[in-house]
Design a protein that fits this description.
The protein is mainly α and about 180 residues long. The protein has 13 helices and no strands.
Length: about 180
């Protein structure tokens, strides 16, 4: 019998949401802020949920912080999207899977974007392949959900404010039954 998404997601955030990954906020605070930013911009439910869940791969990884310290990319976007795909379709998982590529894309297309990244995001950018080459950026633009991934990436960049107000995780979990395929 397959377990529904909500208990597993709540368990993951309960057990690993207090993790800090080189930023001034916990994984839970970051997730809630990204979801709140998506809501404020009027994003569709699938993209709001993707914003909340985009970094679950960091929490699923054995030791994401150690990987970065050792100069390894933890590939959290792939790990998270794969784990979430047992419940959700590409409208939720593809923006998550593509949000690191969206950072590389934005660095290639917007000269000031790199300077707005946090110190950790600048460091991980190098582990993730650096800014895209022009042919990579052109290919990225044609992908389904590329624009959603770019929006998600921008919320990811600014959803790192200590003590910011945001809805509770339980509020976002109300989206899960509507979007779950399980």
């Amino acid at each position: 019998m397959q377990v529904t998404a909500v208990p597993d997601l709540l368990d993951l955030f309960s057990s690993k949401g207090a993790m800090q990954y080189g930023e001034d906020v916990t994984q839970l605070q970051h997730a809630l802020q990204c979801g709140a930013l998506a809501l404020a911009e009027g994003a569709c439910d699938a993209l709001v949920l993707a914003a909340v869940l985009h970094d679950v791969g960091h929490m699923l990884h054995r030791d994401a912080a150690a990987a970065v310290e050792q100069g390894d990319d933890d590939r959290h976007e792939v790990l998270g999207a794969k784990w979430l795909s047992r419940w959700f379709g590409p409208e939720v998982t593809d923006p998550i899977r593509l949000h690191v590529q969206a950072k590389r894309f934005l660095c290639a297309r917007d000269p000031q974007y790199h300077d707005r990244l946090s110190a950790l995001s600048r460091r991980t950018l190098q582990l993730q392949g650096g800014p895209m080459a022009d042919d990579e950026a052109l290919a990225f633009e044609r992908l389904p959900f590329a624009l959603d991934a770019v929006a998600l990436r921008q919320w990811d960049d600014i959803g790192k404010v200590q003590d910011a107000s945001s809805p509770a995780l339980s509020d976002f979990m109300l989206l899960v039954p509507r979007l779950s395929q399980a």
